[in-house]
Amino acid sequence: MSIPIIIDTDPGIDDAAAISLALHHPQLDVQLISTVHGNVPLHLTTRNAQQLIEYFHARVPVASGAASPLIQKPVHAPHVHGESGMAGYAFDEPTTPLISNNSVETMKDLLLQSTTPMTLVPIGPLTNIALLLKMYSEVHTYIHQIVLMGGSAGPGNITPAAEFNVYADPEAAHIVFQSGIPIVMAGLDIARASNLPHTLLPKIKDMNQTGHMLYHLFQHYRGESFLDGLNVYDAYTMMYLCYPDLFTVRPAQVEVELSGTHARGATFVDFNVTDSSTHVLMDIQAEDFQAAFLEMLQYCP
């Protein structure tokens, strides 16, 4: 039986990879794509999500969400993803209208109407998810779990202390991690444990139409440790949902630093717990990650 999910995203090249895999894997049932500020401004993340949906002729609604963090000014990363957010491939301009300009309300309605608790998969800043949880507390029992990309048990990537998605809205991340809802955190630790080596990219290019598209996006992707391979951060969330046994997972308590000149946005991960609603992905064997990525890609057109 497939897992019903809502993807909250800021595409983003690694987001594009994650969305591509999620739309086609039989284990996943994408009910909605919600967009948020992040890698590029909201109007671009929304356009990028629409372009991906139309590229695949997928019947998945797109709703736009928060254009800025709860408190601070927006933070973007065009140096990683290009000015458009998905540099490297010429997508057609989208023609299908958004289902809503208020994705928080759309998520609330979808959750309350669902007969099965759903999984939220935030792969960008957590602004929309925090607003959903604070504004509509009645949805908590309709959420099976939150599988998010963000945070780090070690060093950051946008600052020495902080990972980008959490740093882009620390207050929102704090709300989510304090919600008590079961959370699986796919942070920088798991991405640093494995990557897509550059030598694998020609094989990806020749696999199918999706691989060809991702190959061209990956040529413009400048994530962490680029010289060693591609850290396709957001794809780990989808891979965990489809192949959880491949991962080393540890319970932890996660606190988000909201102040400080050097540590704002840092996630302090305490593994000295025996039971917690939050679990952190810590490891996957590099060969398992690569094999699973290729297997997931085989489901794509």
Automatic annotation (TrEMBL):
One of its GO terms (biological process) is purine nucleoside catabolic process. It holds the Pfam family IU_nuc_hydro. It is an enzyme of class 3 (hydrolase). It comes from the Bacteria. InterPro entries: Inosine/uridine_hydrolase_dom, IUNH, Ribo_hydro-like. The keyword Amino-acid biosynthesis does not apply. Its EC number is 3.2.-.-. Keywords: Glycosidase, Hydrolase. Residues 5-290 form the Inosine/uridine-preferring nucleoside hydrolase domain. GO terms for molecular function: purine nucleosidase activity. GO terms for cellular component: cytosol. CDD domains: nuc_hydro_IU_UC_XIUA. This is Inosine-uridine preferring nucleoside hydrolase. It comes from Staphylococcus intermedius NCTC 11048. The gene is rihC_2.
